[in-house]
Design the sequence.
């Protein structure tokens, strides 16, 4: 059975509620309980942040690549969101840019988690 929604917003709220029910269980014993959590509909790849920092500092990606011992191709892949920032790379970025490794690790983790949730939501089948 297909459900037709009047607006995309209603469809999104319905799918979000179904996902939350799947994660937290069908019914909460307390009635009228709201789950107050923010679920952004977009998270930028950590490479975009890296690119902005390089621009602010007037540094080219090839210069960064040399300083951290990575190939320029790898840095470009990170900037474009095609490659992950590994823990080792995060430590190297900390040494060169002075931005803590935990910042890069958290940005990467949140981005990958967001992508995984998007994939999960796409494959979520609602059975009635």
Sequence:
């Amino acid at each position: 059975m297909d459900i037709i929604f009047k607006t995309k917003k209603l469809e999104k709220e319905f799918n979000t509620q179904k996902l939350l029910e799947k994660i937290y269980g069908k019914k909460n014993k307390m009635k009228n309980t709201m789950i107050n959590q923010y679920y952004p509909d977009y998270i930028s790849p950590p490479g975009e942040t890296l690119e902005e920092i390089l621009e602010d500092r007037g540094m080219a990606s090839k210069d960064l690549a040399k300083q951290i011992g990575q190939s320029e191709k790898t840095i470009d892949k990170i900037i474009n969101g095609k490659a992950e920032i590994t823990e080792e790379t995060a430590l190297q970025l900390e040494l060169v840019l002075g931005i803590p490794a935990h910042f890069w690790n958290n940005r990467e983790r949140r981005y990958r988690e967001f992508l995984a949730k998007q994939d999960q939501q796409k494959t979520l089948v609602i059975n009635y």
Summary: The mean pLDDT is 82. Residues 92 and 98 are 9 Å apart (CA to CA). The chain has six helices and no strands.
